[in-house]
Amino acid sequence: MTIYHFEVVPFRAIKTVKCSGCRKTLRRAKTFDQTINPYNRLLNGQVKNRKDILAELRLEAAVWMREGEICLPCLNKAKP
To answer: Are strands 25-36 and 7-18 parallel, antiparallel or unpaired?
Structure first.
């Protein structure tokens, strides 16, 4: 059985936000990634290159950056 290893293109985003419950400052990090492979294609059918993937990952990270966060103590208080 043949195993193929595709190159992973990572993009790490870090955000600093206030907790929605107690207004405590939180720092969150998340890594977004995609692989360069023949099945990862643009709408026009061309295979995505590193530049295309990074642009898409930056958009995903921008959406995530706008989302609010809740700290663990506030999250645990909210659970019954």
So the answer is: antiparallel
